[in-house]
Amino acid sequence: MNTIIGVLVVIVTVFGGYAIEKGNFHILIQPVEMMIIFGAATGAFIIQSPGNVLTLTMRGMRHVLFYKETGKAKYMDLLMLLYELLIKARKEGIISLESEIENVEKSPIFSAHPDILADKLLLNFLRDNLRILVMGLPIEQIAEMMDIELDSNKAEAHMPAQNIAKVADALPGLGIVACVLGVVITMGKIAEPPEVLGHYIGIALVGTFMGVFSCYGFLAPMSASLEHLEKKREILFNIVRTVVLHMDQNPTFIMELARKEIPAEMRPGFEEMESELKNRNVRKK
Question: Which of 84, 103, 220, 230 holds its CA 20 to 30 A away from the CA of 211?
């Protein structure tokens, strides 16, 4: 939602200012210039997007426009799910988690957290590493495997933002290409009156405007926004890592460690967390 609001603000302020100065909107409507700039940008985007990078980038653009960013509610939901798993492991032994992770749809613990169930990447990360823990591997080896997976997930998650940033960087240059072609056409009309030459030079400069405007007004901010969204998602995986690696310790201590993984702005307060944990204990009884 913020992205759509931001796009509207950019459009209104830029073109509103142009209108206030009594600019001619007709000259800004140049389909051929748009075809050159955005057609070339699309081609460059396809060239630089091998394999599944194209799909990931398109999905990333959709996330920027419509995705509900990770917030306090989801962090709290994940903490409560992990707390319930910790309590079960403490009461019935770590092996008791096997029945929960093998059939999460029928698990009373997982089914109470539909938002986590819907997040397949996060869910699989949690399940896979709990399986390894149940198998009895040394905690040092589990930590190493989790770090490798987190690095791999992080690299893939940041591909869309990097790809969009590269297209954004290319747009001003492609705008100059369109502008130069416009100047070439103008030079062919050098014998025309000044008002005619001025018109064609204005058309040529529209290409530079479109390239720069599209880069700094839209794509570059979208790339930065996607980076922020992915960094907030990374915290979810770090919370899971912290809990899994400390599974043999006191649940209250583990939950406090996990709580501190969350940035201060969205971190549940100590009293809020304690109250929620007590409520969970009461409901379990």
Answer: 230
